[in-house]
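To: structure desk
From: M.T.
Subject: fold request, one chain
Message: Could you run this one when you get a chance? Sequence is below, nothing fancy, just the single chain.
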Amino acid sequence: MLAVKIVQEQGIEVQGVAFETPFFSADRALEACEAIGLPLAVVDITMEHLVMLRTPRYGYGRNMNPCIDCHILMLKKAGEKMESENADFIFTGEVLGQRPMSQGKQSLHVVAKRSGYQEYIVRPLSAGILPETKPEMEGKIDRRKLLDIQGRGRKRQIELADRYQLTGYAKPAGGCLLTDPGFANRLRDLFSHDSDLEIRDIELLKVGRHLRLNDKIKIIVGRKKMENTIIEKLSQDRDIVIRAMDFPGPTVLVPYGCEKEDLQLAAGICVLYSDAPGDVKTLAECRTEGAISHVDILPAEKEVVRRLMI
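Reply: Done. Structure tokens follow.
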């Protein structure tokens, strides 16, 4: 928001661009652009992001977050949009040194260079302490009116926000599921067992308990009503959906189905997490491809289930 205001003060027309994947949304960008009256284009980069995510050139952060490679991809896509719309340059709200992994001087240089648009990337909040770019040299933007902010403190940014009468702006936060340790573990497991992913496989990582029965079979167990609803909506005909009969409990999903032995265990886990008595067999309903069958099963053993948890 601050970078936009600084650029607009020079009489330059600005178009916002934000990116989406299953791991992060453009919601905060939409709110910010609405607050300052900036038109915003939202670009879905899911497929390219997934390819990059499996083998990021610059590796991961603490979890599964490939921050440098992700920024490279975003600036590459922004550059393509710049060319398609005949714009003069790209700019970002990055501040030198604000994020140790992705906004150090070397990282900013690498990201810009690898994007293919290094000459055209301006960082208005820190431009005064960064190398001069082509738009600055050509007078497309006046370098003398750009700032020299650096470091993790936000004092100058807050003062600028007051000056521009910006309120309700977001606090610093990752905002990306790939930085979450639990989600990262599930994603590692998915990558290690499935070479052909669908987008819904990623969406399923966001809900329920995940248990790996063996190298081929994983199940997802809803923890509350909302998750049961989401699991049901994400289910496909070839999946198996399991519920305990006559007792409140979870919706259990077996993506892409399984053999009878695995189905018995999945049904037992479903019963374990239901309100069914723990010492008697309970009927579980199993639905797949429109057909319904039933399994009469005891609850699975808690220790067995604990070992299967991802």
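Reply (cont.): The chain has two domains: 2-176, 207-308. Let me know if you need anything else for the meeting.
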